[in-house]
Amino acid sequence: MAGIFLLLLLAVTSQTSPAAGETPPTFLKSVKPNPMSHLTEKLSHFRFYWHDVASGPTPSVINIVKPPSTNKTVPSPTMFGAVNMIDDALTEGPEPGSKLLGRAQGFYGIASQEEVGLLMAMNFVLLTGKYNGSTLTILGRNPVFEKVREMPVVGGSGVFRFARGYVQASTHTFDGKTGDAVVEYNVYVLHY
Ligand SMILES: *[C@@H]1O[C@H](CO)[C@@H](O)[C@H](O)[C@H]1NC(C)=O
Ligand SMILES: *[C@@H]1O[C@H](CO)[C@@H](O)[C@H](O)[C@H]1NC(C)=O
User: Which atom of ligand 1 is found nearest the CA of 71?
Assistant: First the structure.
């Protein structure tokens, strides 16, 4: 009876631990104690105004890929395939001279053939107080003519290590002539 038990135990342990004589991997270690285990995750809400400035001598958005034509006769009405690179100011209020809190750096592409639906890939780098230098990464779908667009926060750095959450974006102003836009971003993020 005890012999069978010992055999079973050997069978199980031999599958989970390295065989005798085998050296443990040098490239992998679990971090003990986990430095996050005594911290509590908190939910923070930030509100930023995102300034996409296409006009003037120093635009913060530039077109880097022209929309390729999917129909040789007519260009796509949504500009499907176009890509813009951004380094947009994130401010406290909607006015252009409002206090700078950070920047939104990344790009967005027109990813829908039916509407102006963007794929956004950007880092919010904060420039203020204890958040200075920390980043949040936003990756999501932005159908710009909808009132509120929700996109995931997929991670972060600095004080935002292990961050997760979402943003809600709503257009504050859009100038159809220049392409300039101010968008309110409400960021809800769980972090330590
Ligand atoms: C391209 O657009 C033209 C004009 O609307 C249309 O007549 C044609 O059928 C389209 N071609 C394709 C391949 O969709
Ligand atoms: C943020 O960090 C940068 C680089 O370390 C520094 O130059 C700048 O003065 C800091 N800004 C604030 C508001 O602390």
Answer: 1
45-103 pLDDT per residue, tens: 999 999 999 999 999 999 999 988 777 777 678 899 999 999 999 999 999 999 999 99
Distance 100 CA to ligand 2 centre (A): 12
Q: Which ligand is nearest to the CA of 125?
A: 2
**Tokens 């257009």 identify what position?**
171
| Ligand 1 centroid, distance to 179 Cα (angstroms) | 28
Whether pTM > 0.90 for this model: the answer is: no
Write down the pLDDT at residue 78. Answer: 85
**Tens digits of residue pLDDT in 151-171:** 999 999 999 999 999 999 999
Give the distance (Å) from ligand 2 centre to CA of residue 126. 10
Tell which atom from ligand 2 comes closest to the C-alpha of 132: 1
133 lines ligand 2 (CB under 6 A): yes
Residue nearest to atom 1 of ligand 2 (CA): 132
For 166, list phi and psi in degrees, rounded to 5: -150, 160
In the chain, the domains with their CATH numbers are 38-191 (2.40.480.10)
